[in-house]
Write a structure and sequence with these properties.
Elements (H helix, E strand, L loop, with lengths): L3 E5 L6 H14 L5 E4 H13 L12 H17 L6 E4 L3 E4 L2 E4 L3 H7 L3 E6 L2 H10 L10 H22 L2 E6 L5 H12 L1
Parallel strand pairs: 1-3, 1-6, 2-3, 6-7
Antiparallel strand pairs: 4-5
The structure holds adenosine-5'-triphosphate, adenosine monophosphate and magnesium ion (MG).
């Protein structure tokens, strides 16, 4: 399978925005990446099997069916591999009502075999501000300490995924008003 780069970060930190900017710049430089949003594939499967139509509601589906759909999504991503490297927009840990759930448990890692894992981070205040301003989504409101805890555990899980796969882990800070700096770092990570 082609090289897979996994990009992660808490909801609303700016993953999709940074990825979009980086892939456009890379394309202009003649570097082509395939792109997959894990949440898009999960949502297609959730619609078919669970009748869930809002992407911010999916994580509330109980762990049994959630895990099966996650497994199926990993197979779809691995099966769609073309000639170019692939970037996967996803999450280290999904905050479910039952607790934190791994975005890349063993069976997902075995399908994707990531070569590198990128974590996008911002301060809890910046994350909270972006969630509030982004009217297109229905992300949860959380206390700043909860955002901090989620980011801390994301680092821990990313390094655990790295230990299992030999992937590298890189942290990119996406600070308010500094989107172009984050995009530049992402371009460097992907080139
Ligand atoms: P999710 O995991 O829920 O899909 P995400 O990490 O993909 O979230 P985005 O949708 O890319 O997050 O960004 C969330 C919001 O933050 C958007 O409104 C985006 O425009 C804004 N945003 C992203 N980066 C920055 C930045 N550096 N400064 C200010 N706003 C930003
Ligand atoms: P996003 O658009 O990145 O916020 O993704 C939407 C939703 O997709 C998340 O809230 C999760 O419920 C789900 N999702 C994304 N990546 C994964 C993954 N690796 N494992 C399980 N669920 C995921
Ligand atoms: Mg996104």
């Amino acid at each position: 399978m082609n090289k897979v780069v996994v990009v992660t970060g808490v909801p609303g930190v700016g993953k999709s925005t940074v990825i979009d900017g980086a892939l456009k710049q890379l394309k202009a430089q003649g570097v082509e990446y395939g792109f997959m949003n894990y949440g898009d594939i999960m949502l297609d499967l959730m619609r078919e099997r669970e009748g869930v139509t809002n992407r911010d509601e999916m994580r509330k589906v109980s762990t049994g069916p959630y895990r099966e759909i996650q497994r199926e999504a990993a197979k779809r991503i691995a099966g769609a591999a073309g000639k170019n490297p692939i970037l996967v927009d996803t999450h280290c840990l999904v905050k479910k009502p039952e607790g934190y759930y791994p975005g890349l448990p063993r069976w997902v890692l075995e399908e994707l075999k990531p070569e590198s894992i990128v974590i996008i981070e911002a301060t809890p205040e910046e994350v909270a501000g972006r969630r509030t301003k982004d009217a297109a989504r229905r992300r949860d409101k959380e206390l700043l300490d909860e955002v901090m805890e989620h980011q801390l555990l994301n680092r821990a899980s990313a390094t655990a995924y790295a230990v299992l796969t030999g992937a590298t882990v890189r942290i990119i800070h996406n600070r308010d008003g500094k989107l172009s700096k984050a995009v530049k770092e992402m371009v460097e990570a992907l080139r």
